[in-house]
Amino acid sequence: EKRGILNVEVEEIQYFRIKDVQLYKPFLYRLVGLSKLVLITSDSSRPMIVLNGISNGDVKREMFKSVALDSRRSEGIREFDIR
Questions:
Q1: 1 contacts: CB under 8 Å, gap ≥ 6
Q2: Mean pLDDT, to the nearest integer, of 30-41?
Q3: Is 29 exposed, middle or buried (0-12, 13-18, 19+ CB in 10 A)?
Q4: Which of 22, 72, 77, 79 fits 38 for a cystine, CB–CB 3.0-4.6 Å?
Q5: Is 24 helix (H, G, I), strand (E, B) or coil?
């Protein structure tokens, strides 16, 4: 995510931190072929990332899930949930 005009701030997240991807298709978005993706992450500074106005949301949801899984495998990272 890139924010700012004069003072630019760039924030990124590693793919292996993506825990879940949620897809929403509100009625008005569907009329124009768009959707909303919500990335649930294990990042402490940005636990939720909302991507509005995404075309081909179904395809991009699967892409995020696949890339996150591949990234975990290549980095040798295992995920544990502690409650």
A1: 10, 11, 12, 49
A2: 96
A3: middle
A4: 22
A5: strand
